[in-house]
Every structure is written in structure tokens, then in C-alpha cells.
Amino acid sequence: MHTPQHPVFTSEYWNIPQLDHAQLPDIQHHIDTKTKPIGALGQLESIAKKLSLTQGYHSGNYQYIEINHPTIMIFAADHGIAQNGVSIASSEVTRQMVANFLAGGAAINCFCYTLDIQIKIIDAGMLQPIETPHPMLINQSIASGTADFSIKPAMTHVQAEQCLFMGQQAAVQQLQTGTNVLGFGEMGIGNTSAASALLSVLTGLPAQQTTGIGTGITSEQLNKKIHLIDLALQRVQQRYASDTLDPQSALVEVGGFEIGQIVGAMLATASAGKNILVDGFIVSIAALIATRIAPQVQQFMLFAHCSAENAHQLLLKELNATPLLDLGLRLGEGTGAALAVPLLKVAANFYTNMATFDSAQVTV
Ligand SMILES: Cc1cc2ncn([C@H]3O[C@H](COP(=O)(O)O)[C@@H](O)[C@H]3O)c2cc1C
Ligand SMILES: O=C(O)c1cccnc1
Predict the structure, then answer these.
(1) Where in the sequence is the active site (predicted)?
(2) Ligand 2 touching residue 280 (CB < 6 A)
């Protein structure tokens, strides 16, 4: 029954560098010489440490960090599960919102415009492609939406492999332009259902705990959503005789094309030694899958925020991650990731430019 694991689902394939953690005492010392009480910059110090470990690994200079051309990559795809009315919107809205991104009208456009962040939109598998070429749009659709995972596998094993390859391709292309931080976002009506089902099959947690209101559905819709995810879990349990699945089978059974492509893009970003900004619930499930494939990927990840989707806290705990912001957002699109970019910029700036007690002649 089990298909042999494809190399793209092994950590060997991604060959992610092991960062030099022996540098940490020097990095800490560099921070502690700055004109401030020890630890007074809180989580900004943790950000600076992570960025320094990553950037120093390549440059050899652990005392200098910079944020170059930060970019949000929004992966979009449709979901068969959405036919069951588990969202406030129908699948057409995925494409309509992508058109809105391209026209500059969505929340993520406003945030990125304000914060000077580049945007790329990737069609990973929408029901209908956008035909007109656009400089922000990358067409790499796997298929016209996934199958309804409450009754059958969402995708084939080959499609799951294609997801990782295509995600890799998009990230590599963007990194070639000189970007050193990639933030990830998503658009796909029904994708909180896929994310909840993925969390269940990856951790063994029941649907009741992993499922939330997504776009803001009624309690009746929420019960239906939980029931459909339960049906999928029963189907999966019969097939695999196990409570938890490997990453490839998880994507095949209950995943989404945008989620799979984000996994590939994250692994490729880490493989290139660059940092990853993780957005909300859906992008975090891609982060969990990526860490299950290659645990070293997590050295490169910064978790932007804790979403109001209730299972996000559980998921962050599973990842042992501390989110930077907690603003009650539950939108996706990469909005949380975008909001964390200024924090990375100020962390880089204080780490690189702030005066030391010696240089400023401050005596404590
Ligand atoms: C107008 C609109 C804009 C959005 N932007 C992001 N999402 C978010 O909502 C969807 C996930 O929630 P669910 O599983 O409940 O469908 C995703 O597309 C996500 O990006 C949106 C949803 C809507 C309706
Ligand atoms: O946390 C998220 O990413 C999220 C939550 C609800 C709907 N869309 C996205």
C-alpha cells in the first residue's frame, strides 16, 4: 500500500547547512556590549541571534546583518473540500482574490506597500488560471484544485512530489534576485480545513482540537467541518493502520497544492542558507511538514505571529516556536509575515550599528 519515499521527501535531497552554534557565545557578547541593560531588547535579541547565525555562516562576519529585498511569496490553490460549504466563501474567491493581489487592492498589498516589501503570487493549483501575464504572477499550477479529501486522497504521490519541486523552483528564482528573507503567505478557500486535517494526521490530535472557524463560519458549519475531517481521518486510519502519517502521505491524503509548494519553497530557502518568515496557521502547517522532512530547516525559520485560529497555538507548540506578534489576525495572505519584517530590520540595525559601552563611553 505504501509508495516508496521519493528523494524529494528526504533530508539528504535538501542538504540544508548545519549552522555553527559554537558562534552563539560571541554573538551574545556582541549584543551585550551594546549601550543597554543585558537582555533589554527582548525578542529583538533572539531575532538578531538567528539572523547573525544564518548570515555569518556564509559571510564569515558574525557582527553584521542586513535585510535585503524582503519578499512575500503568496501561493494560491483550490481545495475540493470547499464544495461542502466549510468556508464563508466559495472557491471562486481564490481566483478573485489573486486578481485583487495583482491589482494591488488586498490587505497584503497595503502592508507590503507601506513596508517596502516585494510580492510574488504563485498559482500552485487554482480551479481556473489567470491567463493574462503579470510581472507579479508565476504560473506553476499542479492541477485545477485538489480532490475532496473527505472522500478520497487530495492528490497523487506524483503531484505531492511536483509540489515540492515547483515550490523549490519559485524560491530559487526569487533568491537569485538577491532577496535574503522570504516570507510565505497563501490564498485558497477551504485551506484551513486542509491545514487542520494535516495537523491531525501529523500529530494524532483529534479533529475537534485541530479545527477552527477559519474565515469565520457558523457553529453549524464548524460541526460539519469537524465531521468531514473526521471522515478523512477514518479513511486514512483504515488505509495506513496508523494514527500518524509521514509527510508525503499526509500531503497526498489531506494536503493542498499551495501548502505542498510552500514546503518545497521553505526547504529550498534553508538549503540556500536564507531566512524564512512563517505566517499564520496554514503556512505553519507547511513549516511543520518541512521540519518533518528535514529538521535542520527550523534553524532558518522565524515565526511571525500567532493567529486567532485556535489550533495555531497547538501547532506552534508542536514546532516549539515562539511567535513574534499576537495581534488577533486570522487572514493569511502573508499579512503576519509582512508585519514582522520591520522587526527583522530593526534587529539587524541595532545588532550592526548600535554603539557599544566603549565606543559611546557609557559607564554602567
Ligand atoms: C475575501 C477573503 C480574503 C482572504 N484572504 C485570505 N483568506 C484566507 O481565508 C482562506 C482560509 O479560510 P477558509 O478555510 O475558511 O476558507 C484562505 O484563502 C486564507 O488565505 C481570505 C478569505 C476570504 C473569504
Ligand atoms: O492563520 C491563518 O493563516 C488563517 C486563519 C484563518 C483564515 N485564513 C488564514
Answers:
(1) 333
(2) yes
Looking at the structure, tell me whether residues 110 and 139 fall in a common domain.
Answer: yes
Distance from C-alpha of 76 to C-alpha of 72, rounded to nearest angstrom: 13
What count of other Cβ atoms lies within 10 Å of the Cβ of residue 58? 12
- The number of helix segments (H) and strand segments (E) in the chain equals 15, 6
Q: What total number of domains does the chain contain?
A: 2
Specify whether the CB–CB gap between 33 and 358 falls below 8 A.
yes
pLDDT digits (tens, 9 = 90+) for 195-217: 999 999 999 999 999 999 999 99
Last residue of a domain, one of 22, 51, 66: 66
Structure confidence at residue 242 (pLDDT) = 87
Confirm whether 12 is a catalytic residue.
no
Whether the CB of 214 sits within 6 Å of ligand 2: yes
C-alpha 98 to ligand 2 mean position (Å): 16
Do 189 and 336 belong together in one domain? Answer: yes
User: From the CB of residue 94, how many other CB atoms can be counted at a distance below 10 Å?
Assistant: 29
Residue 298's nearest CA partner among 54, 27, 48, 74 is 54
Query: pTM here?
Result: 0.98
- Same structural domain, 280 and 229: yes
Q: Residue 2 has what pLDDT? A: 55
Does the residue 364 lie in any domain? no
